[in-house]
């Protein structure tokens, strides 16, 4: 883990974050839509086929469990009318994040965390349940992203300008909290 943090610090200090944000932004803009069933729901099998084809090391069954867990949490949330944002889907957002991370060749735990993150952030999925079902590594990844989001939200505009222009800061914030 220290190696990952060292790399992140190095990225932050040499200006590579701006370049990474630009690359991720362009990837998001050209990404194909999720495969959709005739009833309008996401075709999870087709999505899983695609994700596994991007990285052959991924365990399809583990990814499917994470997806079904996140989808069920969203359905339960909708049943209680606790939508996190009108017209959006925390489940679909998780799939989109996981797809970006798969293209970047991140590991299975990172992809599982990406699929589940939005549900945890919105209070629909308890972090201890994530740890119980998917392990401590996935739970720690989600907790780390939650902490980064909290730090990002607490920065004053003056502190944010250390990273560059306000537009760059906003793009970075969106990437970290997405």
From TrEMBL:
One of its GO terms (cellular component) is plasma membrane. GO terms for molecular function: GTP diphosphokinase activity; guanosine-3',5'-bis(diphosphate) 3'-diphosphatase activity; kinase activity. One of its GO terms (biological process) is response to starvation. It holds the Pfam family HD_4. Keywords: Kinase, Transferase. The keyword Transferase applies. This is GTP pyrophosphokinase. It comes from Pseudomonas savastanoi pv. glycinea.
